[in-house]
Amino acid sequence: MATDLQAVLDELTAYPSTEHPFLSIYLDITPDGTGKRQSLVNLDQDFERIAGQIKQRGGNLESFEADRDQIMQLVNQDLPVDAQGLAIFACNAEGVWNVVPLQVPVETQLYEDRYPHIFHLARIIDDYETFAVVLVDSQDSRIFVVSLNEAEKAGEADAGENIRRFEAGGWGQMLFQRRIDNVIKAHHKEMADKLGRIIKRYGVQHVILAGNDSIKGSVREALPTQIQDMVVDFINLDIRSNMQSIMETIEPMMREVERMQEADDVDDLETEVNSKGGLGCVGIGDVALALTKGQVRMLLMQQDFAAMGGECPNCGTLRPGLRPTCPFDGTEMQQIDLREAFVARARQQNAVIQIVEQSPFLVEHEGVGALLYYRDDAPQEQTA
């Protein structure tokens, strides 16, 4: 199954800022028509450029060169053959080496900074949620877990008794039909139990049911309410369908679920922002302050959001712009990419991160907003 990217993301956000070069590299490693991986062609030139920047500022060139050698060995000799992309996070001086194969397309990007650049990882996690796909009929069921466009068969069930034709009519036919109905219900109940365990094990967020209309009612009836609420749709698909056919059918559905979730979350944000005392804020300054205070339960960010700001290394205050000193303790502020800082701080607060493809509401408010756990700026009630 795919790497647990959420665990990787949380591990990366736990690293403190360092004075040594920290490399964050995203590589598209899909071969072109000639079998070459174009992202690797200019990698040496990119590393030379970064080396020059580190040397110019008097940084730890030795640590960088160690990481560079290890990365080049990886891409030249040990590149995973079944991945579409690769994320590499490395800082030799801090003992950091994390290679993450990706089963989804990724744009080639190289970053060298004091901290890992994790926005692209957070976006992948947001865009590719985990689905369970249940192919079911009256006697058999197959359950697949699809995460990051990689599918794994996670369970199956059968009726335990073959359903055969019965030619007689009358009372005997009624008894036989009742027995058939009970066998089908028992099978669907077993399927629902297995699905519940799989949802818990894999952290499934959405369920797609596939079968024919004749069993739709029985399947839904077997599911507990909690799982029924996770069902995206019931589609017609033969239980013997191969994986390619399954993925071609459900991929558009998965993308549509994400777009609808984005729209719903932005609507919630707009409602909260426009409500008196609502638990929402927008704009770089207000979101930076909310993250500094630990108020954020969901960070919403346009995919093209970009802003620079400052972070106080002493108290952790985030500020937009390039203010020289912290307004609270006078410490010299460190320049920081606020896109990366916002994502890292949000995960440190266990907040959900929603990267939005396009939202006029967010565009009107500098491309970023947040839903909050609480407010601390509400006016106090006057007492007699």
Description of the molecule:
The chain has 384 residues and is α+β, with helices and mostly antiparallel strands. It folds into three domains: 5-127, Translation, Eukaryotic Peptide Chain Release Factor Subunit 1, Chain A (2-Layer Sandwich), CATH 3.30.960.10; 131-241, eRF1 domain 2 (Nucleotidyltransferase, domain 5); 262-372, 60s Ribosomal Protein L30, Chain: A (2-Layer Sandwich). Helices cover 39% and strands 24% of the residues. It contains eleven helices and 16 strands. A five-stranded mixed β-sheet has the order 7-6-5-8-9. It has a four-stranded antiparallel β-sheet with strand order 3-2-1-4, sandwiched between helices. Helix 1 packs across helix 10, helix 2 (43-56) runs antiparallel to helix 3 (61-77) and helix 9 (284-293) packs parallel to helix 10. Mean pLDDT is 89; it is low at 380-384.
Notable traits:
single chain, disordered C terminus, 3 domains, alpha+beta, 5-stranded mixed sheet, 16 strands, 60s Ribosomal Protein L30, Chain: A
What is this structure's SSE topology?
Layout (H helix, E strand, L loop, with lengths): L4 H9 L8 E7 L14 H14 L4 H17 L7 E7 L4 E7 L6 E5 L5 H9 L3 E6 L3 E8 L2 E9 L11 H33 L3 E6 L4 H7 L2 H4 L2 E6 L6 H31 L6 E3 L1 H10 L2 E7 L5 E4 L6 E3 L13 E4 H11 L3 E5 L3 H5 L3 E5 L12
Parallel strand pairs: 5-8, 8-9, 11-15
Antiparallel strand pairs: 1-2, 1-4, 2-3, 5-6, 6-7, 10-16, 11-16, 12-13, 12-14
Helix pairs in contact: 1-10, 2-3, 9-10
